[in-house]
Amino acid sequence: MSATLTEPAPPQATVAAPDPTTAAAAADRKPLTRKEIIGDHPTWCPGCGDFSVLAVYFKLIEKRKLWHEKIVTVAGIGCSSRFPYFLQAHGAHFIHGRALPFATGLSLARPDLHVFAFGGDGDAFSIGGNHFTHTARKNLNLTYVVMDNQVYGLTKKQTSPTSPLGFKSKTDLWGAVDYPINPMKQAIMAGATFVARTSHTNPAHVLQMMEAALDHEGFSFIECLSECVEFYQGAFDASNPRKGGAFNLVPAEHDVTDEMAAYRLAGEPLPGHFGIFYQVKRPTKNALEAKIIKDVREKFKGLEDWQILQKTFDRMN
Ligand SMILES: Cc1ncc(C[n+]2csc(CCOP(=O)(O)OP(=O)(O)O)c2C)c(N)n1
Ligand code: SF4
Ligand SMILES: [Mg+2]
């Protein structure tokens, strides 16, 4: 079958608007305040860990002067995935498990933006498990924060892929029998180039991890323990000093480029350690694809993109 492309209509003449993103304009511009970016009133249960993550995201936007035209916030489906509703900003509450493919398209099409994806353990590792692996290995330039509560919260307590063995839920009345996924191991093994762990109980640390993720070029993954007070209360008490637990930082001597060392940290039982487990540099899919596009345009100088595409279709006939 052959495809025939027709010449697109010439672009309409537009009046150039002043570019608010130039360095000079940016220096004068005030950061967005929480008041300016807060959207719908969060509908989470009182005490839900997700409140803390949202508050930190507001802080990040303000602190790092992330203006509306510079970021997009996307999510799948779940309590945690309601995130984009609670922001007055560009974003999408997408299909269950599909936040990452949506974010991938955005990241590739608009390399000038920073794309943040938020979601839950079910969204990320059940229905979206396949997408997680491939987004990580492709090293897309975006940040993914998984608010892990070890349960399906929105649908009222089913076993999630991170629920521990023995966890009693509406789908495992006698206790979970399936061995849980370890998100940190999963991310390292899949090829993520930035892998960090934090907890909603320590907002300053969440902010630190989000800033480091923002500064990382490539796929940055943060597992944020976020308690579901309704359906899995006390799940992370062992890591909460206010509940007698311990919030241990990754040891200073840990080498973040050592994959095996990161894997060992990831294998520790609760409370484990918090911080950046793994961080390496590898070319992003964004950069690799941009180079292919540039080279092809140079090779076919004088042709429009659609003509290059037509030529390719014709050759494949
Ligand atoms: C295709 C599809 N299957 C199932 C559902 C029902 N569903 C909605 S959210 C969810 C799981 C949510 O769990 P998680 O991602 O851990 O988010 P949480 O609510 O815990 O934050 C499920 C199974 C759906 N919306 N779409
Ligand atoms: S059900 Fe759980 S995860 Fe959902 S809003 Fe309530 S406390 Fe948070
Ligand atoms: Mg969950």
What does this protein look like?
The chain has eleven helices and eight strands. The longest helix is centred in the C-terminal third of the chain and has 15 residues, at 285-299. It starts with 22 loop residues before the first helix and ends with a helix. An eight-stranded mixed β-sheet has the order 2-1-3-4-6-5-8-7, with helices on both faces. Helix 3 (50-63) packs across helix 8 (203-215), helix 5 (121-127) crosses helix 6 and helix 7 packs antiparallel against helix 9 (259-266). Strand 5, helix 8 and strand 6 (219-225) form a beta-alpha-beta unit. It has two domains: 31-282, Thiamin diphosphate (ThDP)-binding fold, Pyr/PP domains (Rossmann fold); 283-317, no CATH class. Residues 13-18 have low confidence and may be disordered. The chain is globular and about 65 Å long. Helices cover 34% and strands 14% of the residues. It has 317 residues and is of the alpha/beta class. The protein has helices at 23-28, 34-37, 50-63, 99-109, 121-127, 129-138, 183-190, 203-215, 259-266, 285-299, 305-316, and strands spanning 71-75, 91-93, 114-120, 142-148, 194-199, 219-225, 248-249, 273-279.
